[in-house]
Design a protein that fits this description.
alpha/beta; five-stranded mixed beta barrel; 3 domains; six-stranded parallel sheet; 2-enoyl-CoA Hydratase, Chain A, domain 1
């Protein structure tokens, strides 16, 4: 009886514990999210997802470990909106030494609850780049550029004022593209601290009071565990193909694949590979400042190569196609931001290989067209044979290893040699060969 009472008492205590003890969560974790490369839709999705998860798990601190040359304005603003609505403090950490937070990275750093840099890093050069393509210098284009710059300047000033950072310098980073070192950034109140690594950052912010979406909180990070999160497989794939160099390679691979398929119908594999590559390239192009005149020139070049196969232009169409592809490739990306440009080390080899393959196909197709067909009805024309049944004017002829019904003008005796002049249905028209040795 006593044992039963003790069991009931123990169960009662457990129920009380579940009712009054707060649920366990990840307050003992500092999550580090690495951003390396351009800010694109894949990176924005990744960071936004991590911030949402950190809020769900009530983690103590989220660190954006950054080294970025910039990126898309829309992706940058998506990340900043998630930071501003977060109840978990977000620290931007420009690291390791030699890294930078340029362009979009500057906005994200200034918008974060905590801004930190490693020694030997830099921040700034946040002047917005042309993302519309075309790059014109007319009055309308200049007016549009001025509006974009003014909007970006007002945006970064509001972010700096919200975090009580140097709004004047932030505006200069947009309007004048100024850039400063980590030490200057600390002195000018652009960032909060300098730290050698993530561990030093976590120790340095211990006890710091920050303002998050839910109000003021004091960080307690001294003895917290640091964990590193990475992109999932899908996000990694999207991030890779959003690289301008990869996009260009995919586009050229796609066009060459379709060119193979159109010039040699029935190969299937080049068409499938080309179609998939083009679809991936088109996805990536939405994240890049594409000059569509350049893209159309590349497309025109491929069309000219295809036309060369069917129209004998003595190489004129091929040369025109090569020039068109070259000009289109150099014009394809319209941006002054190095992060959004195609590397010359990728551009010229890819362009050269593409043109070489295309010219090779043209040459092979031209040579093949000039060869005499050896099969079917066309392959019979010009063949010699022997009369097996006298022609007067019809009879039978052994030609090309087969017995054919034949006809001729006049009479040809059995055993004499003949030459096939034409094929009409299943009947061949022949003429007598006077000198078989000829």
């Amino acid at each position: 009886m006593l044992v039963i009472l003790m069991k009931k008492y123990f169960i009662f205590l457990l129920l009380i514990g579940f009712l009054f003890v707060p649920p366990a969560h990840s307050k003992d974790l500092v999550v580090v999210v690495k951003i390396s490369g351009a800010i694109n839709p894949a990176v924005a999705e990744y960071v936004s997802q991590e911030i949402s998860q950190a809020n769900h798990d009530q983690e103590a601190l989220l660190v954006l470990h950054m080294d970025t040359p910039g990126g898309l304005d829309t992706s940058m603003r998506q990340i900043i909106k998630k930071i501003q609505s977060s109840q978990v403090p977000v620290a931007s950490f420009v690291a390791p030494s030699g890294s930078r937070a340029a362009s979009a990275g500057t906005f994200i750093t200034i918008a974060s609850h905590i801004a930190a840099m490693a020694p030997g890093t830099n921040i700034g050069a946040a002047h917005p780049v042309n993302m519309m393509g075309g790059g014109g210098q007319d009055e309308q284009a200049k007016t549009m550029e001025k509006k974009v710059v003014n909007d970006a300047a007002a945006y970064i000033r509001s972010l700096a004022e919200l975090r009580k950072r140097n709004a004047h310098w932030a505006e200069l980073a947009v309007v004048k593209s100024v850039s400063i070192s980590a030490e200057e950034a600390l002195r000018l109140n652009v960032v909060d601290l300098i730290a050698a690594d993530v561990k030093a950052l976590v120790l340095a912010v211990d006890g710091k009071e920050v303002s998050v979406a839910s109000g003021l909180i004091t960080l307690d990070t001294k003895n917290l565990q640091i964990v590193y999160h990475e992109m999932n497989a899908r996000q990694k794939l999207l991030d890779i193909i959003s690289n301008p160099n990869i996009t260009y390679i995919l586009m050229m691979l796609g066009l060459v694949g379709l060119y193979f398929e159109l010039s040699n119908p029935g190969l299937i594999l080049p068409g499938v590979v080309g179609s998939i590559s083009l679809i991936l390239a088109f996805y990536a192009m939405q994240a890049l400042p594409i000059n569509y005149a350049g893209f159309l020139l590349i497309l025109l070049g491929v069309i000219l190569f295809i036309a060369e196969i069917n129209v004998m232009s003595y190489g004129l169409l091929s040369v025109s196609g090569a020039i068109s592809i070259f000009l289109g490739s150099t014009m394809l990306i319209d941006s002054d931001d190095p992060a959004l440009q195609i590397s010359r080390a990728i551009l010229y080899p890819t362009l050269g290989l593409t043109v070489a393959l295309s010219l090779g196909i043209v040459v092979l197709a031209t040579r093949t067209r000039s060869l005499r067909k050896l099969g079917g009805k066309e392959g019979m024309v010009g063949e010699t044979g022997v009369v097996k049944e006298a022609l007067n004017p019809k009879g039978l002829v052994m030609a090309h290893g087969e017995l054919w019904e034949a006809e001729c003008e006049g009479e040809i005796m059995t055993g004499e040699s003949v030459r096939v002049d034409s094929v009409k249905g299943l009947i061949i028209n022949v003429t007598k060969i006077e000198d078989p040795s000829s």
